[in-house]
Amino acid sequence: MRTRKLKIGLVGAGRIAQTYAEALQRSSTACLHAVADVRREAAGAISESFRCRSFDSHLALAREGGVEAAIVCTPPVTHPAICSDLAKQGLHVLCEKPFSIRRDQARAMIAAARKAGVLITMASKFRFVPEVAHAKSLVASGVLGEVLLFENAFTAKVDMSRRWNSHPRVSGGGVLIDNGTHSVDIARYFLGPLAEVSVVEAPGVHGLRVEETVLVHVRNERGVLGSIDLSWSLNKEQDTYISVYGLEGTLKIGWKQSSYRRATDKSWEVFGSGYEKARAFGNQIENFVRAIRGEEELLVTPDDAMASVAAIEAAYRSMRQGKWTAIVNEKKGRR
Question: Could you tell me the pTM of the whole model?
Answer without folding.
Answer: 0.96
